[in-house]
Amino acid sequence: MLQKNQIEKGNLQWKCPSNIALVKYWGKQGKQLPSNASLSFSLTAAHTITSIDYEKKDKTAGISVDFLFEGKKNEAFARRIFNYIQSIKDRIPVLNGMHLRISSRNSFPHSSGIASSASAFGALALALKDIDTILTGKEVYDENFYREASELARLGSGSASRSVYPGFTVWGKHEAIAYSSDQYAVQLNQDYIHRDFVSQKDSILIVSRSEKDVKSTAGHALMQGHTFAQTRFRQAQKNLGELVHALKNGDRGKFIDITENEAMSLHAMMMTSNPSYILLKPESLIIMEKIRSFRKQYAVPVCFTIDAGPNIHVVYPEDFESRVKDFIQSELLVYCDAKQWIDDGMGKGPEKLK
Ligand code: PMV
Q1: What is the best residue among 171, 215, 216 to mutate for testing ligand 1's pocket, by most ligand atoms within 8 Å of CB?
Q2: SS3 state at 11
Q3: What is the pLDDT of residues 51-100, one digit of tens each?
Q4: H or E stretch covering 75
Q5: What is the whole-number distance in angstroms between the Cα of residue 12 and the centre of ligand 1?
Q6: Strands 9-23 and 38-56, how do they pair?
Q7: What's the predicted TM-score (pTM) here?
Q8: Which domain holds residue 86?
Q9: 24, 92: one domain
Q10: How far apart, in whole angstroms, are the C-alpha atoms of residue 209 and residue 204?
């Protein structure tokens, strides 16, 4: 615990990975609560590093924030961050009267369909929770720390709740996982993951780097009153139950069926919403078809998933890395924007750098 008159200032830095959802969160209710449970695995190359210099100014004053994104001022992001911190400040009373200098950097292009908000809010939530931990003298990075960081992250961006852990993560109440919750994500117990799935690769093919026409927030909102909404939420719950089972039993066929079915269902929701919109590009479809025929022809357990954007995540076990990378390089990169891709895969989870 801090002594009276001790200066409450310091700095810290957290790195948090993005994650790729295999069962998608699409549609929310109440205060950023999911309409269905989702399941993802955390990545490594795609991440955000967030540093915070904090200093207590005046306990009676509010919180002030300076925000730099990739070393530059960014008004739109700064506003979102400020509003977010205001919205969670009651959960972290030590933030009252603080000046926060926040600086954030992504390892990948933002708004390109790679879940930049997941790693960004993951890193920010971890850093804010860490300030709380330090200033209240707890400094224990246990299960509670990460659970609370997950809950804080969720309030910034739903998918961010899943980024604060390594491995497979579930956010949203589901009967197959007794300890799951709508409030925060939980890590799937490693004992329940078959060895064939402990090391997944995700090669992210950048079909387009341009900003998305319809942001996720608008997409979630379009699920309200969507003709297929209730069916979709039931489908996701069922898919998640079956995927958990497949992960435990090493059922690669089922893993592939569910992963691709989820990607298709997510984009079907967008195409059939009112108004309708399409985020996939012709190149996305070509890549998807090529992956399916490659899998069929060579019996390689590779599949695709897609987030809210045109980019294709090629998911496969590490054992098949060189085979799949040869295929990507020789047949798929030609459909990418400037042949760009991110060589990613399951990582070790978030890390405190300073
Ligand atoms: O966390 P948000 O609001 O950016 O929504 C993310 C939604 C998807 O990435 C499409 C799916 C998911 O579960 O990550």
Answers
A1: 216
A2: strand
A3: 999 999 877 779 999 999 999 999 999 999 999 999 999 999 999 999 99
A4: helix 75-88
A5: 27
A6: antiparallel
A7: 0.96
A8: 9-192
A9: yes
A10: 12
